[in-house]
Amino acid sequence: MTLGLIWAQAANGVIGRDNALPWHLPEDMKRFRTLTAGATMIMGRRTWDSLPERFRPLPGRRNLVLTRRPDWSAPGAEVFGSLAAALDAATGDVWVMGGAAVYAEALPFADRVEVTELQESFEGDVTAPAVDLPVSGTTEWATSSTGLHYRHVTYVR
Q1: What are phi and psi for residue 151, nearest 5 degrees?
Q2: Which residue among 75, 109, 139, 152 sits deepest, i.e. has the most Cβ atoms within 10 Å of its Cβ?
Q3: What is the band of 140 on the pLDDT scale with cuts at 50, 70, 90?
Q4: Do residues 66 and 47 lie in contact, with contact meaning Cβ atoms separated by under 8 Å?
Q5: Which structural domain, as residue segments, surrounds residue 66?
Q6: How far apart are CA 33 and CA 49, in angstroms?
Q7: Is the pLDDT of residue 137 over 90?
């Protein structure tokens, strides 16, 4: 099993506001789909809830959802009470996709972290954890079809 974390963050570290992304970056969504295709996805319940209904469960992926609510269920979601239990059940390529507490708990075990950095800052109530891993690759800054500026940074243990 390989464990990766994947997120996009604003220049000020923001990754979310009111359980949603505070920006629209279609190029990042495309990259997310490409990198995670066929993989097992681990996410917190609020991250699951933030997905548009038409994308729940994420198509072509196994969806593992962490929650403290033992009675919670959703079609297409496998429910786990802890990250450790979800990791024990996971096989193959595994990606953590949020939220912040799940990222922080999973980061020490990550083989790889994929971050899309935006040059712009955004207001938000959730920030990314600090990544203390070697950078193995960075793309040049690009301009999104929405006018935002972004680049991809890969960290590998």
Answers
A1: -150, 160
A2: 152
A3: very high
A4: no
A5: 2-156
A6: 18
A7: yes
Q: Report the percentage of the chain scoring pLDDT > 90.
A: 99
**Coil, strand or helix at 33:** helix
Q: How many domains does the chain have?
A: 1
State the CATH number of the domain containing residue 134. 3.40.430.10
* pLDDT, tens only, 79-132: 999 999 999 999 999 999 999 999 999 999 999 999 999 999 999 999 999 999
pLDDT given at position 70:
87
21, 112, 141, 155 from 132: Cα distances, Å: 24, 11, 22, 9
| Contacting residues for 111 by C-beta, under 8 A, at least 6 apart | 2, 3, 4, 156, 157
- Residue 77: Cβ-neighbour burial (10 angstroms; 0-12, 13-18, 19+): buried
CB 15 within 8 A of CB 126: yes
- Please give the distance of CA 49 from its chain centroid, rounded to a whole number: 14
